[in-house]
Amino acid sequence: MREIVASELERIGDERLEMVTITAVKVDGSLEHADVFYSAMSAEEDGRAEEVAEALDELRWPIQKLVNREVSTRKTPQIQFKPDLVLSSALRIEEILRSMSDSGEFDASETDAEHSGDSASPEE
C-alpha cells in the first residue's frame, strides 16, 4: 500500500508535494482505516507544511480510488494522511544534544566511557 500511494503521488507530480516521502502505512486490524505517514522535511523548513497537508487532503480521494483498485483484499481501508514526526523529532534531539555538547553542558564521550566500563570481565 505504501508503494502504491508513493508511486501515485510521484505520478501526479503536484509541485506542492516535491520532496514528500511516504514513510509508512499503518492499517488497523479490521481493515477499515489506514494511516499513511509522510515526511516533508524541506517543506517544514520552508514553512510550507500546511500547504503539503492541504495538497494531500485534496488528493486523498483520487488516491483512495487507486488503492481500492490495486489492493486485493475483501475490504479496502480508508486512508488518512498524517505527518511522520519521528525524523523531525530525532533531528531536534540531535540538535539539542549538539548544542549542549558545544556549550560544555553535555559530553558524549564521558557517557560512552561510563557505559563501556559497565560490563565487568569474568576474571574480576
From TrEMBL:
Gene Ontology MF terms: ribosomal small subunit binding
SUPFAM superfamilies xrefs: Ribosome-binding factor A, RbfA
Pfam families in the record: RBFA
InterPro entries: KH_dom-like_a/b, RbfA, RbfA_dom_sf
Entries under Gene3D superfamilies matching the protein: 3.30.300.20
GO biological process: rRNA processing
Entry GO terms, CC: cytosol
Ranges where the record places region Disordered: 102-124
The protein, known as: Unannotated protein
Organism: freshwater metagenome
Species classification: unclassified sequences, metagenomes, ecological metagenomes
